[in-house]
Amino acid sequence: MRSTFNILFYINKQKTRKNGKCPVMCRITIDGKIAQFSIKGEASPFLWSVEQGRPSGKDKQDKALNQKLEACRNELKKHYHRLIEKESCVTAGRLKNAFLGGESQDSMLLASFKAHNEEYLKSAGITKSRGSYEGYVQACKALEKFITLKLGMEDIAFGDLQPSFIRDFEFFLKVGLGYAPSTVFNVVMKLKRMVRKAINKGIIRKNPFVSFTCGPGDTTRKWLSKADLDLILNATQEDKEVEYIRLMFIFAAFTGLSFSDLRNLRNKDISTDGKGMVWIRIRRQKTGTRAAVPLLEIPLAIYNKYRNADTNAKANVFSVPNYPLARIYLEKLRVTIKLDVLKFHMSRHSFSTTVCLSNGVPIETLSRMLGHKNISTTQIYAKITHQKVEEDMLALEKRLGDKYMLPGIQVKTNTETKANTKAKNTSELKEPKQLAV
Question: What CATH number labels 105-200?
Answer without folding.
Answer: 1.10.150
